[in-house]
Amino acid sequence: MNRLLEEKTVIITGSNRGIGYAILDRMAKHGARIFACARKQNDEFEKNITVIAEENSVEIIPLYFDMCDSEAMREAVKRIRATRYILDILVNNAGILSNYQRFNMMSMDDARKLYDVDFFAQMEFTQFISRLMQRNKTGSIIYISSIAGMDAFFASFDYVSCKAAIDAAMKQQARELGQFGIRVNSVAPGIIETDMIENSDSNNLKSILPAIMLGRFGQMEEVADAVVFLGSSMSSYITGQILRIDGGTNPPRANW
User: Fold this and answer.
1) d(CA 95, CA 49)
2) Which of 158, 77, 178 is nearest to 117 (CA)?
3) Model pTM above 0.90
4) For residue 61, what pLDDT is reported?
5) Beta partners for residue 92, in sequence order
6) DSSP 193-233
7) How deeply is 59 buried, as exposed, middle or buried, from its count of CB atoms within 10 A (0-12, 13-18, 19+)?
8) Residue 256 pLDDT class (50, 70, 90 cuts)
9) For 28, how many CA atoms within 13 A lie in the half-sphere containing its CB?
10) Helix ranges restricted to H, the chain
């Protein structure tokens, strides 16, 4: 296999499970050196990334910090900077899902909690890392967004609006950082088979299948492949874009 990320250094947030872990695995297979960020230390995770690193002859460095703890985030950035590696790619994957709630019934405290993790923490971390990228006049920043931010289907109001905010922030960052050779894009998955959708309403999930042109839900590896593409030189003239990974989802019902 042609290794698209050979000698590239990548930072992945939320890398210990689900789509983040699939991205870590795929990027390692493509030759990337990886800072694997997660909230809590986990022995099983460290064993797994040791195996992945050895199998692919790459370096994977675990970093543990709470994305909502600014001081802990600064310490993690200091550790990254101390390695003196040129930072090529940042994948903003960390985030939480909310319970399904309609707008009129939603607690604003719950909405603020989701925004703190899914939006403000990512923006703060991206500020730190993009400043390091600017010194080298190169970089690719990739947000894991969602088609919910564009289609406003059955996900909760806070999640839908937060993903829309991420996509808008991405476009503004692409405009501002382009002069430094830094590209910024979003990957917007549709319904992907992960453990995070286990608590979603099964009837809602089944009802969306007829609206998916390929007639199935997506796999985590399919999202990871899109992230590899946007991080590689194959996408060197792509910035400010939202890449849908959704099997051709076109919800026909306004209340989705």
Assistant:
1) 21
2) 158
3) yes
4) 98
5) 143
6) -SGGGTTS-HHHHHHHGGGBTTSS-B-HHHHHHHHHHHHSG
7) middle
8) very low
9) 25
10) 18-29, 43-56, 70-82, 108-115, 121-136, 148-151, 157-177, 202-208, 220-231
- Say which amino acid occupies 89: I
Contacts of 109 (CB under 8 A, 6+ apart): none
Strand partners, 60: 34
Contacts for 95-98: CB closer than 8 Å, 24+ residues apart: 95/14, 95/122, 95/144, 97/155, 97/159, 97/196, 97/197, 97/199, 98/155, 98/156, 98/158, 98/159
Provide the 3-class DSSP secondary structure of residue 1: coil
Structure confidence at residue 251 (pLDDT):
67
Sign of CA dihedral 12, 14, 16, 17: negative
User: Contact at 8 Å (CB) between 116 and 67?
Assistant: no
Is 169 exposed, middle or buried (CB count within 10 Å of its CB: 0-12, 13-18, 19+)?
middle
Residue from 9, 39, 251, 245 nearest 144 by CA? 245
Place of tokens 């430094």: 180
Classify burial at 2, counting beta carbons within 10 Å of its beta carbon; exposed 0-12, middle 13-18, buried 19 or more.
Answer: exposed
Rounded-to-integer distance, Cα 116 and Cα 212, Å: 31
% of the chain residues with pLDDT over 90 = 79
